[in-house]
Amino acid sequence: MRHGVVATLVSAAGFGFMPVFAFYAYDTGMSVTTLLMLRFAIAAAVFLGWLGLRGRLGRLTGRQWMTLALLGGGMYATQSLLYFTAVQRIAPALAVLLLYVYPGLVSVLSAVVERTRLSWTVVGPILVSLAGLTLVVGPLDAGLDVLGVLAAVGSAVAYACYIVLGSKVSASLSPTVTTAYLAMFATGSFALLGLATGGLDLGFAPAGWGWAAAVAIVSTVLAIALFFVGATALGPVRASILSMLEPVVAVLATWLLLGGALSWPQLAGGAVVLAGAVWGILANSARGDASAEEETTAVPASSKRTAA
């Protein structure tokens, strides 16, 4: 139990530092597309290499290949692009808080997909998160980058859709295998996007390689692996709640390292958003119950910022 708690908290800290690492990478002249392509390429190489050495790659069916291509190359790549764009345009801490609207969205989307009644336990989490969202964003005429805010909210919507769909179609694969192939397909998507738009440029300052490696190793490979350790020891619901440390770390790291700070109303709004997120996790768990709990959290665990 103790090792599970430590692993989960260290994982959350790794995820929390990711927007800060990304900020420094952008400062070297690296584009969003280039950073994401490098991030997923490194992560895919590590995960696939580890699985290959242990003989755990397994054989995928044609349906599984298509599903993982859709999830990794399409939906998750879209979520990552929106999230990292938000980090580039608005305060990283603000982007993280806006992303955490997703657990409430998952509650509503799951109920719609499963055609269950929209009870207070379904609608409540998203209403609480949206209430906090209004405090976090504040007046849009206060110099806040509207496109950055929309990108962050869009990443939460895309992430929620990805989780709901992914929990239905990839339960037959282990989280590690799922993560490895999602990263591989995401790499391909960003490579193609970069070539098509001219956004793939390796002419950034040499320090950019270090920051890209930090995003890939510290905030992706190690953070995901440690989350798996924590989820195995504690259960996915407890691990997900402990992972709420991520936005706290992001806010503190932004303040200490980047000199940015959120206002008191924004911090209060962030607390409300996270309260809605915890409620959403508990509500989703209550609907899933025992055997379904592992299935519905396999993809969120692996996708926990394979982006974000």
UniProtKB/TrEMBL annotation:
> What family classification does the UniProt entry report for this protein?
Belongs to the EamA transporter family.
Broad class of the protein's primary localization? membrane
- What InterPro entries has UniProt attached to this entry? AA-Vitamin_Transporters, EamA_dom, EmrE-like
Keyword terms, alphabetized: Membrane, Transmembrane, Transmembrane helix
Report what the protein is called. Answer: Drug/metabolite transporter (DMT)-like permease
Membrane-spanning intervals of the chain: 5-26, 32-53, 65-84, 90-113, 120-140, 146-165, 177-196, 208-229, 241-258, 264-282
Instruction: Tell me what organism the protein belongs to.
Output: Streptosporangium brasiliense
| EamA domain ranges (all copies) | 4-137, 147-278
Is Transferase a UniProt keyword of this protein?
Answer: no
Q: Does the keyword Mitochondrion apply?
A: no
Q: Which Pfam family name is an example for this entry?
A: EamA
Q: Which SUPFAM superfamilies match?
A: Multidrug resistance efflux transporter EmrE
Q: Which domain of life is it from?
A: Bacteria
Mode of membrane association? Multi-pass membrane protein
Localization of this protein: Membrane
Q: Which PANTHER family match?
A: EAMA DOMAIN-CONTAINING PROTEIN (PTHR32322:SF2), INNER MEMBRANE TRANSPORTER (PTHR32322)
